[in-house]
Amino acid sequence: MNNHIFDIVMLAVMIPTALIMFFYEYPKNWKDRKVIFGVRNREEFKNLNNAKRVDDITGSSRKQAGIILLISLIIMGLMCLIPDFTTRMVVWTFFIMIDIFLLLIPFIRGNSEMKSLKKELGINSKGISYSEFSNAGTIHALKLSRMIIPCVVGIIVCLAALFYDMKLFSFGGRTSAGDYMISGLLASFLTVGIVMVPISIMFDRLRNDVISEDSDINANYNRAKKKNWADTNVFMIWINTAFIALTFPAMVMFQTEKVMLVVMVVYMLMLFVGLGLFVKRNLAIDKRYRRETSIETDDDDYWLLGSIYYNPEDKRLNVEKRAGVGATINMAHPVGKLIGVITVLAVIGTILVLVWVAILGKTPISLKFEDGKIICHQLNDDYVIPADSVEEIILLSGTNKLSLTRISGYNLEPIFKGNFTVEGERGCRIFLNTEVDKYLRLISDGKTYYINGNTVEETEEVYSHFIK
């Protein structure tokens, strides 16, 4: 895999994410926003003296976030210059976790200052909420058929990929290697599309907000919000289906990770386009109905740091986010607590995996002939090939010129291990350091291996045992 493709994917994900976080959470004009740093906007904030205070809070937080954003973008560019791919990948992953937290620090600070301002103004009505029963449960915008159709299209393509992998037909003159790589990948994305259906239904059934004593205003406001959700989710699921439909022929015809990654970049960019349109429409809806808001629901104190919802009195598991886009979990709910524990364990697991990858990337491979066997070793014995099972063995040069496409295994340059497609031949066993020019191509028990050691001498020494 071309290392720079990895950087392109990371930049395509992180730059839009950082920009959306900045412009959505740190607005220039706070007066039309429904929420300011996780605190509900209210008329008291717009009084002359108070407005100056809010201007100072939002301006200062936005400036601090802007500096963090600029530094983040510079660091992203510098990380692309790290020569060692394993180190770069580990650094990128840690950077993502740290950077998202850093971008939230000005938000947390702004939340604290806005809550302090509320107390100074004597606004302290924790627990007050409003419900409207005239429209309860009747406002929906999602038509289920709009979600089902793209899912059906995705299922059809995945079935075609499965039949192809089962060698029931050829595509463009090509036949499958029978490793189920294509159908497995597409099935994972189909699962994402199918999971989006219940998630979309959940968003469509979120509790209606009460912003006015006029039921019609409440109905129109919630209908507009839910339609925005519905339209966005339908757009996202169609993008997911388009990815499935395009990836199938691309993987069959080109059989290269570069093409796959290009499609993935386009996929991610389209998702961000959908997210950006959602944010734009959502802000327009809040601005439109801000003038008609006559009831303020005060549950600010249940939002810890402005973004974590903890309300033991609320029996709902899912609520609309205060910070960011989408829904979040009520951490006071028993299931919410379980999800919180799982999230912490997942973060710890990710860190441990990164440490393991870093160790693996820095541990040299070795190739030796011992007790009548070829042993491919890195931390443990990856392959042990009896010499008497070797049907054919050739010493070749130009390891770095091999076309390697991973099916399963490890491919952090310069180390490649696992099941790969090599020069169009699928199902090859790989154990290679691509910085070592020479390698062995051998066939054992009907399986093709491409192997070498950490040096040319190591590789040639093993080959010498087969020279008659």
Could you describe the 3D structure shown?
With 468 residues, the protein is of the alpha+beta class. It has nine helices and 15 strands. The protein has helices at 3-25, 48-79, 85-120, 144-165, 181-204, 215-254, 257-290, 334-362, 456-464; strands at residues 35-36, 39-40, 303-304, 308-309, 318-320, 327-329, 366-370, 373-378, 380-386, 390-397, 404-412, 415-422, 425-433, 438-444, 447-451. A six-stranded mixed sheet has the order 10-14-15-13-12-11, with helices on one face. Helix 1 runs antiparallel to helix 2 (48-79), helix 2 (48-79) runs antiparallel to helix 3 (85-120) and helix 4 (144-165) runs parallel beside helix 6. The protein is elongated and about 95 Å long. 26% of the residues are buried. The model has no long low-confidence stretch (mean pLDDT 84).
Outline of the structure:
The chain is of the alpha+beta class.
List keywords for this structure.
single chain; 6-stranded mixed beta sheet; 3-stranded antiparallel beta sheet; 9 helices
Q: What is the approximate shape?
A: elongated
Strand order of the largest sheet: 10-14-15-13-12-11
Helical proportion, percent range: 40-55%
* Spatial extent as radius of gyration: 28 Å
Q: What fraction of residues sit in β-strands?
A: 15-25%
Report on the biggest sheet. Answer: 6 strands, mixed
Distance between the termini: 37 Å
Number of helices: 9
Structural class estimated from helices and strands: alpha+beta
Low-pLDDT stretches are none
Mean pLDDT: 84
Helix and strand pattern = HEEHHHHHHEEEEHEEEEEEEEEH
How many runs of DSSP E, i.e. beta strands? 15
